[in-house]
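To whoever is on call:

I kicked off a structure prediction for a single chain this morning and the downstream step that reads the tokens threw a length-mismatch warning. I double-checked the sequence; it's 430 residues and nothing unusual in it as far as I can see. Pasting both halves so you can look.
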Amino acid sequence: MAEHKLLTKDFGTEGVQTLAVYERLGGYQGLREAFRKFTPETLVEEVKASGLRGRGGAGFPTGMKWGFLPKDVFPRYLCCNADESEPGCFKDRELIDENPHQLIEGLLIAAYALQVNVAFIYIRGEYQDQRLLLERCVEEARAAGHIGNDIHGSGFTCDVIVHGGAGAYICGEETALIDSLEGYRGQPRLKPPFPAIKGLYGKPTVVNNVETLSNLPHIVQRGGAWFKAIGTEKSAGTRLFCCSGHINRPGTYEMAMGTPIRELLAEECGGVWKDRSLKAFQPGGGSMQVLLPEHLDLPLDMDAVMQAGSSLGAGAMVFMDETTCMVNVSMRLVDFYHHESCGKCAPCREGTYFESDLMHRLEAGECSLEELNTLADICDNMNGKCFCPLGDTATWFVMSAYKAFSDEFKAHCGAGRCPVRTVRAELVTA
């Protein structure tokens, strides 16, 4: 694995928060090589050949996404989505903290490929320290000639603007992000038209994730074929996984795609804590369907995990031990989506309210079996019927948990308390 560490190399105590250190370690050579070795069109083809897929959740092929921009329509825009708000996800924050110029260089490479003259980094409102760091690094890069007019004599001009959000989860959805950038309330837009056709200020726009862009300097310097050779046929390269929950070593780990999930848990995360057994885990963040111990031998491959009934999503692995109450976890996640619903469409606005109310009564043991049976109807009225994916994802975990742990859900009905937490308390005090 060591030779495949692209984004999380050990730089010791030096750190790469400053331009001087980043350049001493080879920083911005990828940008120079992009100008020297590629035209914008051939650079797009190189990224297509690399097999790089988006690291923000959907996993769409990056080069193909770039190829959707209509030819000869200008100006066009590039937005870096740093609005990292998925429960359990913190990799983008760490990439910015540890290597901000890597992101800026990747953003400029993408801007050159797309012939974008103004690129934005839209960063989560709660990431104030990271926003200030990026603003300082952008000014460093501008002063050094990496940003501005005729960059390195290439004839290419690009400015970079860092824009802070206001803490709305919905702005991680690309069209809501664009609305927020334009100064409007962050709400999703109807698609089509897609942002590639009509995005920021009504012009063609590409939105890419922090981790996606951070891969580009390495692809340019070593080649698309080199990147493609890492991982699997359909999931190339490495990927960062934010691991948390009931494990001995929580943290962010960079793994070659195709590595078994069991290896990530055992060797990187140190296994399940307190010598307990694994009950369930989420492979891609709070919105993803639950998987079971029997799925640990699945490879870290987007398609393989999808075939198992879940998704790698934003790369947030949340592990739960045998004492976990799946009703309680479901309730907390439903509460999150109820709070973060923008309210634009009725299925999500009303559905998350009814879903949250039902789950609270179920967790308290005050829900009847007949009422529990309405959960599937509530979720069915949301999934696939909302304006954007938020309403869909608000149903995915709870319904998958209900399916896998139906006896546990039913045991709460009329119990007057949470039976799982009662048993756990008895074990702890015994």
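Update from on-call: the warning came from a stale cache, not from the record. Cleared it. Sanity check on the structure: The mean pLDDT is 93.
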